[in-house]
Amino acid sequence: MPLSSRDLVQQSLAFASPPRIPYAMGNGFPSDFRIVSRQPAPNRYTQPWTEHEGYYNMIDEWGNEWRRLESITKVEVYRGVI
Predict the structure, then answer these.
(1) Which residues pair with 50 in a beta bridge?
(2) Distances (CA, A) of 76 to 41, 47, 81
(3) What is the distance between the alpha carbons of residues 66 and 26, in angstroms, rounded to a whole number?
(4) How do residues 45-78 score in pLDDT, each as one tens digit?
(5) pLDDT at position 20, please?
(6) Do 4 and 11 touch, CB atoms closer than 8 A?
(7) Which of 13, 28, 40, 78 has its CA 20 to 30 A from that of 67?
(8) Cβ atoms of 8 and 20 closer than 8 Å
């Protein structure tokens, strides 16, 4: 009797020598994994990327303020919560 995808993944995580390696190819191909996501917290304090005087600013769900200069820098924490 072939193992279910769940059993394959559990045996693999437990290093219990499953009969094959679990795989996830995506795009309509077979997969042993499921995609799980979550909804944003209703009380989150986030702001999307907004353009200011020469830079872009964003506040993430933890309250960290991120900034970047367009085509000059990537992104960095400007003001952290801690």
Answers:
(1) 57
(2) 24, 16, 13
(3) 32
(4) 788 889 988 899 999 888 899 999 877 778 889 9
(5) 93
(6) no
(7) 40
(8) yes
